[in-house]
Amino acid sequence: MSLDVRTITEDDLPGWVRARRTGYLQPPAVSGAELAFRRELMDFPRAQGAFDDGRCVATYRSFTQRLSVPGGASVTANAVSNVSVSATHRRRGLLSRMIDRDLREAAERGDAAATLIAAEYPIYGRFGFGPATRVTEWEVDVPRAGLDPRHAGPGDGGRVDFVDIADLREHGPALYERVRAARHGLVDRTDVWWRRNTGALPMDDAPWTEPFAVVYRPADGAGRIDGLLVFTADDRWEAKLPHQTATVLDLVAVSPAAERALWLFLLSVDWITRVRTSYRAPDDLLPDLLPDPRAARVVTDADLMWLRPLDVPALLRSRTYPVAGSLVLDVTDTADATGTAGPAAGRFLLEAGPDGASCTRTARPADLSLSAAALGSLFLGGESAVRLAALGRAAEERPGAADRADALLRTGRRPWCADIF
User: Fold this and answer.
1) Its quaternary structure (predicted)?
2) Do strands 346-353 and 325-332 pair parallel, antiparallel, or not at all (unpaired)?
3) Are 228 and 213 in contact (CB under 8 A)?
4) CA pair distance 258, 252, nearest whole angstrom
5) Domain check: are 177 and 326 in the same one?
6) Annotation marks residue 162 as catalytic
7) Helices 32-41 and 13-23: angle between axes, nearest 10 degrees
8) What is the widest separation between alpha-carbon atoms in the chain?
């Protein structure tokens, strides 16, 4: 029988969730709690499934997301998630059919870009996505780090306090939005995100265990919260000695002072001999906060969020640039298997500076030629045009164009996406 690729309804949800679990090699049984959780997440008109004789064999959904860009603004992105194809139905073009339709609809809506977290690296480049953020995870050997065991809290007069989960649910969203305005690459956290991560919306039938939550308040902030740390700790002893590992679930901070205070607090907690940091930006402050940075061992260094330009002028106008300058980009974009030109295709004149930018289509000769995927990698400032040119993924049409692109696009801090969505 032919495969039916279509928008799903609420009645399809149990079979869709089962297919997603099967595609992710998770036990296929679907609990009532997971169904309730998935129902909360779903924007059903943007959820698709492939059906073979009524059985769901592939899954796909997208949703509206706000992405922070350099300069503090946000753009509307089409976030792609829950992509799966059952092992019995691979190589039949199911992903292509679902993603082509979704990206076309996103471009028609006026979304500036599409984003996703790629489980496998080779899949999404052919759809115009490029890796736009990277993450690093460290494991810190606390006794080796060389920290003063008498550390008694922030040296700036601020304070660190434990809070309960109700405080986290109340104050976390506003704090995170302040952080998101200051750090490009972060995506918005919905009410569903906060309820899921504070135990109010279970993801499955497993009992939820409350983590530890800590906040930082600056000395001059009249009680204002400028940083948040959430972590768990195991309970491991050997020969009557503690060997506890603290695992960071979340650490966000408005200021470097707040970030330093929270790391130093966690590294000073009695009984903790090892800290796992979760996914941090590659240029996180942590390793070099330590007297011995070698005590922080890298355990993960990888791409995380991928970005696909949809509306190039809107995307490039949305951010600020560290210097003034202009650049003509010739962007190639093949939208689907038919070879039709995608929404990012064209030649664009970028005139930019610290106060903002204009970007329009142009007939001027190009300075730099590149694919939509390469532009996706460059946009947030974490990748180098010079490096992409050396890799053959961008081409200088005028000498020095890649250097000029880096002067315009690179940012002082690396973009960071803290969440898997």
Assistant:
1) Homohexamer; trimer of dimers.
2) antiparallel
3) yes
4) 9
5) no
6) no
7) 100
8) 74
DSSP of 237-269: EETTEE-EEEEEEEEEESSHHHHHHHHHHHTTS
End-to-end Cα spacing for the chain: 33
Amino acid, single-letter form, for residue 338: T
The model's confidence at residue 336, banded by pLDDT at 50, 70 and 90, is: low
Neighbours of 177 (CB within 10 A): 16
User: Could you tell me which residues are beta bridge partners of residue 230?
Assistant: 213, 250
User: 412, exposed or middle or buried, with CB in 10 Å at 0-12, 13-18, 19+?
Assistant: exposed
pLDDT digits (tens, 9 = 90+) for 344-354: 999 999 999 99
Q: Are 113 and 77 in contact (CB under 8 A)?
A: yes
Residue 118 lies in a domain: no
Q: Are residues 213 and 275 in the same domain?
A: yes
Provide mean pLDDT across the span 212-238: 94
10 forms beta bridges with none
- Which of 78, 75, 82, 67 lies closest to 34, judged by CA? 82
Binding-site annotation, residues: 83-85, 91-96
pTM of the full predicted structure? 0.95
User: What amino acid occupies position 242?
Assistant: P
Same domain, yes or no: 140 and 249: yes
pLDDT value of position 152 = 62
286 and 161 assigned to the same domain: yes
Q: Running DSSP on this structure, what letter comes out for residue 311?
A: S
Specify whether 38 is located in the same domain as 66: yes
Residues that constitute the known binding site for acetyl-CoA: 83-85, 91-96
Decide if 124 is catalytic.
yes
Domain of 225?
136-303
Distance CA 370, CA 390 (A): 12
**147 plus 268 within the same structural domain:** yes
Please indicate, yes or no, if residue 185 is contained in any of the structural domains: yes
How many domains does the structure of the chain reveal? 3
Token code pair at residue 267 = 């590294």
Q: Are residues 324 and 386 in the same domain?
A: yes
Average pLDDT of the chain? 95
